[in-house]
Amino acid sequence: MYFVPALHASASFGYTLSMRRFFSGFLFFVSLGFLFGEEDTAPPFPLIPLLETAVSGELRWRPDWPPEIPPDAFSAGGRAERGAPREILLAGGAGTFTLRRDEAGRLRVFPFFSKGKSLQAEFEYGRSGDIGSVKTLVPGEDPWRFEFPEGFLPYGGGSAVSLPVKASRGGAVFYVFFFEAPGFLSETWYDGDGNFLVYYKAEIYRDSSSWRVRSLEKRDAAGADFEDRSFDSEGNITELSSPEGIFTALYRLKRPLYWTRPPALTDASALADAGASADASAPADTPADAAEDLAASPEAPVSFILQWDERGYLTIMKSAETKEGDIAEYRYEYDLDPRGNWTKRQGLSMTSGFGLLIPGAGLSWIRQITYPETAPAGGE
User: Fold this and answer.
1) Does the first or last residue of the chain, that is N or C, have fewer Cβ atoms within 10 Å of its Cβ?
2) Distance (Å, whole) CA 4 – CA 185
């Protein structure tokens, strides 16, 4: 066989933090064009971020999510007395997304968002809880399918070392090898003839019973790219740096209060068309002149101020740098189920004009929530 993953793994693990900073201009590019393979000839995407989400059992909001997707779209707030919902189906103008758990509470189906786009991942588990197979779906494209060896548990004390994962898309077959070391998890791809394609290395840290990715490095024939992440004490991602720019967020507990995105990835007209919501009052711990400072720079990131009520519902999301005639904010109203989780979110746009805020149309999101006791017996 042609597979020699240990050579690539050992070489990459020799890179130090200082060397990563030396290559800071190549910060890992996780645009969805690369990540999800828009063309049949596109290189494969990293599995590590998908595995991180599946193992954590939680779909966490990140500051690189599309602006139109509600930050609390897949969380069960309010009074969920009997645990997390079995399924959340989210539908609106930006598409339809599904999060589904099995009877053991593991994530079976979930959307994965990065740099403004998404895919839908479907996981199958073995009897012992190991990952058996994964399928990823992008509308209009052939799905990727992954078959994992028996007993595969990523970053689980050596169980994933050098075990081949078979990947296929259309008629093409690939092989992926994982290598574990203290604080690191690597992923190396080969084509069906054993030719090296791409290598990823993730710096890992433990988060309760799960693990989180601090940085993700990519190396292939084109060179090296990196993505770096920063976290707060609650485990929220406060900064995500890549060649596309820097995403940041300020949180109170798990809720984003102040959010910035690279201007190239946040089109104001697209935000308006998608019906994203906005909030009008800045949090007390946000500097009063922050929006003015950002707006003064032609390269300033696009910033949003979010306001949540005492029940935990997002009520307003406001643009921090509004011009005359632009949509200044969106205001939200909700329909709730008996447990206090929202099932409909109606956005009302407010446009800035003549020193006033003029109301306009907005977009609704509908959530269909299935709880464990109402799920079909033995079903997913």
Assistant:
1) N
2) 16
- Closest to 87 (Cα-Cα) out of 328, 369, 347, 277: 369
Query: What digits encode the pLDDT tens for the residues 287-297?
Result: 334 334 433 44
Contact (CB, 8 A) for 194 and 1: yes
For the four alpha carbons of 19, 21, 22 and 24, in that order, the dihedral sign comes to positive
Model confidence at 222, pLDDT cuts 50, 70, 90, reads: confident
- Quote the tokens at residue 171: 């008629």
Residues 6+ away with beta carbon under 8 Å from 242: 27, 28, 29, 30, 115, 225, 226, 227, 228
Please give the structure tokens belonging to residue 63.
């500051």
Instruction: Please state, in angstroms and rounded to a whole number, the distance separating the CA atoms of residues 174 and 191.
Output: 4
Cα dihedral 146, 147, 152, 153 in deg (nearest 10): 30
d(CA 118, CA 274): 15
Neighbouring C-beta atoms of residue 79, cutoff 10 Å? 12
Name residue 360's beta-bridge partners. Answer: 349
Give the integer Cα–Cα distance in Å for 264 and 104. 41
Closest CA to 223 of 11, 16, 27: 27
